[in-house]
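Revision sheet: structure tokens.
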Amino acid sequence: MSGRADRIVFAGVSKFYGEVLGVNRIDLEIGPGITSLVGPNGSGKSTLMNLMAGLLAPDEGRIEVLGLGADRPEELGRLLGYCTQFDSYPRGITGWDFVYLYLRLHGLGRAEAAERARAAIERVGLTAAAPRRIAAYSKGMKQRIKLAQAIAHAPRVLVLDEPLNGLDPLARAEALDLFRAEAAAGKHVILSSHVLHEVDELSDRVVLVHGGYVVAEGAIEGVRDEMAAERPLQVLVRCPEPGRLAARLFAEDHVVEAQIDPDRRGVRIRTENAERFYLLLNRLAAEGAVEVEQVLPADDDVQSVYRYLIGGQAQGAS
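Predicted:
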């Protein structure tokens, strides 16, 4: 496949789990930069990622990653870094060992493995926590140590499955900066996300997956703004003082609703301007005005966003 050494190529790829469809007849090329896979749960995003990482073999079709066949998993593992959405760690392992031992498995000597582990952990802001056991980490810290492991061996391709889940606003902003820096260095960054406004402003390209098929590709600029009037963004903010945060946010004209969650460990926010909301939350957290533990999409309306896309822009892509 000459001329595609800088592409991730799916050619007629299908994957089935018994009688259940994973993905079907996927023809797709992904170039350098940031590509986001969007779609509801069960749409096939994780299957696509596992296929390109060599963790699954296609039932039909062919996959190549920068000219390398997905049937060569050891070589593919050196080329690609994968941050899954699932938390699974050896019992009792520390953050440092999680990254350092991974590099040793890559064949690096002790000194080089230690240097790369140190740099990757520092890059995700976990230097102080590295000696601690991962079992004691927060959800956001677990996300970041997985990201450190994924980037530690300097891969040319980063595959990131829901990498922003559980991150507080500052860690989220730092992660986005990291993704942009990797893309600016000419790497392939493929991520999935349910936070549509971030996908819109972060990605060079969006691939819409629905029911195991790729139904649209390209930019989705303006989707958030088009939908704002009829479907405000809903977000759950986990924090120790939900009443204080709710009062502060409800003073903003773009916040439609601010309700303390029934467990009193967070606030559910509905806003008509996602960009203003996230900028405000980032500023409040940076100033120390509020403590924010996690920011999570609270929309069951995400399904509606995809239905909107499939019924609108995607109709001409079948």
